[in-house]
Amino acid sequence: LTNFVSVEGLTNDEVMALITRAEAFKQGKAHLELATDVYAANLFFENSTRTKSSFQMAESKLGMKQIVFDPQSSSVKKGETLYDTLLTLNAVGVDLAVIRHPQNKYYQELLNLPANSHLNIGVVNAGDGSGQHPSQCLLDLMTIYEHFGHFQGLKIAIIGDLTNSRVARSNMEMLTQLGAEVYFSGPKYWFTEEFEHYGQYLPVDDLVDQMDVVMLLRVQHERHQDDANEAQFDAVQYHAQYGINQARYDRLQDDAIIMHPGPINRGVELASNLVEAPKSMFFQQMQNGVFARMAMIEAVLRGRKLGGLN
Ligand code: CP
């Protein structure tokens, strides 16, 4: 891979190779020796704690060097485009750009460059609008695989703010491709036609005791400016109707797990006292994020023959 912008197009073998490599990094069985300096810049045009810090950690663990980029104090504020920003960073020596951006498929213009373009930088997508979140998908797949050892036939419910969720889109595509059965729940107005292709909608109470994985999505209020339902949103009511409370937690199968990409709205998607409950995998997800991202970056470094890798 010379860029890593989406999980679309990855084969099951490629996904499994990335998971295996991430596990090897996690277990200390794999190390990279970069023969030359490789510079990364992390460009986050939307807020992030997990993704940004774990990409930074992954780059450090791979022996890369980082150039700090802060959109707020950058010339983006003077109107410089993403393309021109990357041209600049590339010109000063940055080899790899990890980008989070509010615009869906912002990366397309960066992949389809005109022949005379000077830009030669690897792009890793850290989330584009409501489009894709490939690194979250990979760390989620790694976490599920660690727990179950396979994907085939697993029943996985994705519950919540589907419409706005790049996590849901990446995960429903890859989980289905890997042989899992995907179900959806949450407010019905977020279950639009595109999701019907991947799985059935069922009420939360019909799902909890049937699922191997309950994947909760954050209610993304910051993306609800045009959502007619936002004015009526009631956190207490949401929790009662769609959240995992103690009663629903108690109905989960013995081996079932709960996942959430974070940040969690405590008391909304999940009762606050269940955040650190035994079936809650959030800490494994966050930890695995470092190693999944190491595997993703390594694939791009090898694809670009950076750091003396091939
Ligand atoms: N899961 C996730 O993308 O979290 P952050 O927004 O904190 O990076």
From TrEMBL:
Q: What is this protein called?
A: Aspartate carbamoyltransferase
Q: In which pathway does it act?
A: Pyrimidine metabolism; UMP biosynthesis via de novo pathway; (S)-dihydroorotate from bicarbonate: step 2/3
Q: What does this protein do?
A: Catalyzes the condensation of carbamoyl phosphate and aspartate to form carbamoyl aspartate and inorganic phosphate, the committed step in the de novo pyrimidine nucleotide biosynthesis pathway.
By its UniProt entry, which NCBIfam families does this protein fall under?
asp_carb_tr, PRK00856.1
Q: What's a BP term from Gene Ontology annotated to this protein?
A: 'de novo' pyrimidine nucleobase biosynthetic process
Every Aspartate/ornithine carbamoyltransferase Asp/Orn-binding domain range? 152-298
Q: Return the similarity comment.
A: Belongs to the aspartate/ornithine carbamoyltransferase superfamily. ATCase family.
Q: Tell me which EC number(s) this protein carries.
A: 2.1.3.2
Could you give the subunit structure recorded for this chain? Heterododecamer (2C3:3R2) of six catalytic PyrB chains organized as two trimers (C3), and six regulatory PyrI chains organized as three dimers (R2).
Sequence positions that bind carbamoyl phosphate: 50-51, 100, 133, 136, 262-263
- Top-tier EC class: transferase
- Give one Pfam family: OTCace_N
- HAMAP family attached to this UniProt entry: Asp_carb_tr (MF_00001)
Tell me which GO cellular component terms the UniProt record holds.
Answer: cytosol
Q: Which positions fall inside the Aspartate/ornithine carbamoyltransferase carbamoyl-P binding domain?
A: 3-146
Give the UniProt keywords, A-Z.
Pyrimidine biosynthesis, Transferase
Q: The organism's lineage?
A: Bacteria, Bacillati, Bacillota, Bacilli, Lactobacillales
Catalytic reactions of this protein = carbamoyl phosphate + L-aspartate = N-carbamoyl-L-aspartate + phosphate + H(+)
InterPro entries cross-referenced by the UniProt entry: Asp/Orn_carbamoyltranf_P-bd, Asp/Orn_carbamoylTrfase, Asp/Orn_carbamoylTrfase_sf, Asp_carbamoyltransf, Asp_carbamoyltransf_Asp/Orn-bd
Which terms does the record give in the GO molecular function aspect?
A: amino acid binding; aspartate carbamoyltransferase activity
Q: Where does L-aspartate bind?
A: 78, 166, 218
